[in-house]
Structure formats: C-alpha cells, structure tokens
Write a structure and sequence with these properties.
Blueprint lengths: L1 H10 L4 H16 L5 H11 L6 H14 L2 H13 L5 H17 L2 H18 L4 H12 L9 H10 L3 H7 L1 H22 L9 H27 L4 H19 L4 H15 L5 H19 L5 H34 L2 H12 L3 H16 L4 H19 L3 H15 L7 H10 L3 H8 L3 H13 L1 H11 L1
Helix pairs in contact: 1-2, 2-16, 3-16, 4-15, 4-16, 5-6, 5-12, 6-7, 6-8, 6-11, 6-14, 7-8, 7-21, 8-21, 8-22, 9-19, 9-20, 10-24, 11-23, 12-13, 12-14, 14-15, 16-19, 17-19, 18-19, 18-20, 19-20, 20-23, 21-22
Length: 464
C-alpha cells in the first residue's frame, strides 16, 4: 500500500518530498501500526547528522564562487590552455567544467554559471547552438563527480561511507569522463573541419602551463615539507598560503587561487587536517576571502543575497532528505527492502549482473527524481544487496551518482536540460536532441567505471 500511495501522489503532481512524507503518514493512519508523530520524529532524526552540516556550506561555497566573477577567470584560463586546438571552445567548455566542478559540487550550478558564458562564446564563434548546448550539458555532469560533491555527502551519510574516500574516488573517473568528452569534441572538429578559435600564443600558453605547475607543485611541496621534513602542518600550510597569495600578486595569475579550492579540500581531508564538514566551512572561508578581500568582486549586498539563496536551496535539499528518511524507514519496516533484496538475490548472485540491473534502474529513476531524493530512496534498497554480494560501497556510490547525473539530462525531470534550454533559448525538444549524441561518452564512462572498480578505488585505498 505504501508504494501505491506514493506513486499515486507523485502522479498527482505533488513534489517528491511531500509525496514521500504524505504516503508514510497516510500509511500510518490507515494501518495504525504506529502513532502519527513517528513521522515527525523520524524526519527530524533523519537530518540530525553531523555530516549533513556539510550540505549548506558546500552550497554556500558554490554560490559564492558563482557570484564572485570566478567563472570568467576559469574560462580565460581554459581558453589559454586549450583554446588553440581544433574545436577549441568545445575543449574549453570541458576543461572549464572540470575546474569549476572543484568549486560548485553540483551539475546545475555548473550549467547555469559557466554554461551561460560558454554557450554565448561558442555561438559568437560560429558553433551551432545545438553543439554548444550538448557539450555544456555533458560537461556539467562532471560537477558532482569531481570533488567537492553534494550527492557524495548525501550518499556517504545514507550508506555510512567515508565522504573523504568518495571525494578521492571521483578524481580519476572525472578525468576519464573529461578525456572521453574532449575526444568527442575532437571527432566533431575533424568531421566538420573546424579550426582553432584563438591564435596559438607561446607566451599565453606558457603562462597557463606555469599556473598549472603551481597548482600541482604547491600541495606537493607542502606534503614533502610536512611528511618528509617533519615541519608542523598548520604552520607550513599557513606559510604556504602567504607565499601563494604573494605569487598571485606578483605574477598576476588568472585562476590559480580558485583552482586551489578542491586541492585544499581533498588535501585537508586526506591528511587529517579537517573532516568533510570542516572542509566545507574552509571552502566557504576561502571563497569569501577571494570574493570579498582579494579580487573584490563580491559586495556585502551580494553576499547577503547569496546567503539567502543558500538558505532556500538548503531548505529544499534537507526537506527532501528528511522526507526520504521516514519513507526509507517505512520501506524497511514494512519489509519492502528485504523483499526486493531476496527477489534480486534469487534472480542472480552475480555482481556483474546486479550492477547491470542496478544501472538500468538508476538510469530510469534518474529521469523522474531529483538526485537527492533518488539517493535517499535507493540507498536503503540497493546498499544491503551490495553488501551481500561483496560490492565495495565507495565504488557503488560513484556508479549511483553518475547514473543520476545522466538522468539530469533527460526529460521529463532533467533539471540541467531545462536550465540549458532557458540559457540557450531553445525548446526542450531541440535541447534533448542536442544532448543525445553526448550520451555516448557518458555511457561509455559509466560502463568503464562500473566494471573496472580499480579506477575508482585506487586513490581511496592509498589514503583510507
């Protein structure tokens, strides 16, 4: 009955969170198995979690970066690095999303923030609107794969998995996805005879490569000083930051400081300087320092508006988590999750077959449910099966999040689809057709990530 009521409420057009909470409440009234206040109690306990404190802070950090003019710096840096290649702005689009993914943590923020600049630039350089929309949509899926990632925080809390391990696990798969997308851009450039979009300039390229060397070399130097030379970690990081800001002022770097956001996050968590929640707070402080004090592109009036937007988004996300908590508890209490587990294990005990079926299910669910709601519903159902089949939960988290990100590109509920349709002033139908060819590199990445877990687990196993 619980599932029937939930589907009936969803079909009636109610938001998914209200449908989940409403179905649970109606079921309790109907069966009188527990007092109705259990719904409120379970919803409150579902969000009474320390790891969930990271959610508002990651949202705030992404909003601050998005509103502080950082996107223009990232775009110009990517343009200097790969804009001279054939199909240059397509490559810029992908590389820009890789960098911006390290700050926003969500696909929608990537599509709305960087996507607006990229689509306009590509149209001005003669690219078709459909191609611009397609590559922007595909590259936006990198947002939640490359750390930090809001879906990883939700999954880690629901599945009792280390968020730091999930963040590390997303780095190599994110790189693989970016490479496959850039190969797709190269294919279209060769097919259509596209040339470069900016003139090759040794000076500009060398400056961009120098910035890249700083991004890679700075954390490596700090690690060597702390781990090998025995310097105090807090003092070393503080001194390193002062030198980094001095170098930025002296050499007038384009994007070194913004790119350091994921470096500081992942480095701090893997070295034990802070937890994921504390890392989210550190990302907010870093964003405020850059926007308010260093670049001075963020006013206090804009900061207040960003905070209000963050409160609104956070309330939506946490309400979904709270409603899904009571719904997931009801599914477990009524034996639905156990029944599904028994049915799946009776059908197959082969991990590869289960992963195939789980991928098909998650791709389907991702077309209809927002990722946060889908994670909170699917984790109680699928994670117990993974545990019985010996599938690593960090690996499965990557598979789940990527499936749900692909779902964001599909009608009827794909939010990235609707955002890009509005940005590009295209109909939803034309936007959908434009995105279809880009499902090839995305699904190819999904297959590799699903059936080659070493790619996902190599980095987490080095540190966790």
């Amino acid at each position: 009955m619980l599932k029937i009521v939930f589907l009936f409420l969803m079909a009636g057009g109610l938001p998914v969170a209200i449908a989940m909470a409403g179905a649970s409440l109606i079921y309790l009234f109907w069966t009188q198995s527990s007092p109705p206040f259990v719904v409120i109690h379970r919803m409150v306990s579902g969000i009474d979690s320390f790891p969930l404190l990271a959610v508002p802070f990651f949202i705030l950090a992404g909003n601050l970066m998005n509103n502080a003019g950082i996107t223009n710096r990232i775009y110009n840096f990517a343009l200097a690095l790969v804009g001279w290649l054939k199909g240059g702005l397509g490559h810029v689009n992908v590389l820009g999303s890789v960098i911006f993914a390290g700050m926003s943590g969500t696909a929608i923020a990537d599509a709305a923030g960087l996507g607006t600049i990229e689509i306009k630039a590509m149209k001005d350089h003669g690219y078709s609107t459909e191609f611009a929309v397609g590559v922007t949509a595909a590259s936006a899926t990198l947002g939640p794969i490359i750390p930090p990632s809001l879906p990883f925080v939700i999954y880690g809390m629901m599945a009792n998995v280390s968020v730091g391990a999930l963040f590390l696990a997303g780095i190599l798969p994110g790189a693989l996805m970016a490479i496959l997308m850039m190969l797709t851009v190269a294919y279209y450039a060769h097919k259509n005879g596209w040339g470069a979009d900016v003139k090759f300039d040794w000076a500009r390229l060398m400056k961009a490569l120098g910035e890249l060397a700083v991004v890679i070399g700075w954390p490596l130097a700090l690690w060597l000083l702390v781990e090998k030379a025995g310097f105090p970690p807090q003092v070393t990081v503080f001194a390193g930051l002062i030198l980094l800001f001095a170098a930025d002022k002296w050499f007038n770097f384009q994007a070194v400081l913004p790119i350091m956001t994921p470096v500081l996050l992942v480095g701090g968590m893997t070295t034990g300087l802070f937890t994921p929640t504390e890392g989210a707070i550190a990302a907010c402080v870093w964003s405020m320092v850059l926007g308010l004090a260093w670049y001075k592109t963020l006013s206090w009036k804009m900061f207040v508006k960003v905070c209000l937007d963050t409160v609104e988004t956070t309330a939506t996300v946490l309400f979904i988590v709270a409603a899904a908590s009571i719904f997931g508890w009801m599914l477990t209490a009524t034996g639905v999750t156990a029944a599904i587990s028994e049915w799946v294990l009776a059908f197959t005990k082969e991990p590869w077959m289960f992963l195939l079926l789980a991928n098909l299910l998650m791709l389907f669910v991702g077309c209809f449910l927002e990722p946060t709601a889908a994670i909170t519903i699917l984790v109680p159902i699928l994670v117990p099966i993974c545990q019985k089949l010996g599938i690593d939960l960090v690996h499965f988290g990557l598979v789940m999040v990527l499936n749900l990100m692909i779902g964001l590109l599909h009608p009827p509920m794909g939010m990235v689809l609707f955002v890009l349709a509005r940005v590009a002033k295209l109909s939803v139908e034309r936007t959908t057709v434009a995105i279809l060819p880009w499902l090839v590199p995305l699904l190819g990445s999904l297959i590799i990530i699903t059936y080659y877990p070493k790619l996902v687990l190599w980095l987490p196993r080095q540190f966790f």
